[in-house]
Amino acid sequence: MKNILVLILSIVFFNFWAAAQSKDSVFTLIGNELCNDIKAKHSELTQAEDMEMELGLLMIPYFSKYESEIKKIIDGFDMTDPNHLQTLGVEIGKKLIACPEFMILVNSNRDIIKNARAEVTISLIGTLQAVSVGEFTSFSIKTTSGKQEKIWWMEYFPGDSKIADGSLINKQVTVQYIEKEIYNARLKDYVKIKIAKSVN
After folding, report:
1. Rounded mean pLDDT of 182-194?
2. What is the pTM of this model?
């Protein structure tokens, strides 16, 4: 009986632990480890000719180390995709705000702040399933991995006429989009949505 109880508690604990491995926790973990690297190499980074590139090189090993966790967050994560790397860089940069050594570097190099605030364009490839027309129009994409993604049509973008006339339905497309947080009154919280920038 005691062994069964221990087994049940172990399963519950494991499920709880697995659920806690969220996007935020993975990026926080990477940010904390990267902060230690920045602290150790602070004097070298301060004197570097291209500080932003040096910081990028420090990040790359962590992308490999946590690749399996990152793939659960970014569909089809590819280390060779500049869009994916830029997305990761921005997310980790947000966590590094709590790193004093990083903030000292940022204050001495305003280009890092400018790039961190820039909109990140992300790509996905999949089949256009349907267009949902309403006060705000969206369309659904089934990615090559089988995941359904909702993309919002909030403004003009190249390829929007082909979405409107339905000529791309059931065809493979490449979608460029950005992510923005909007307030959801029903949930009483901010949620992240994908906004189309181009379709071809």
Report:
1. 84
2. 0.45
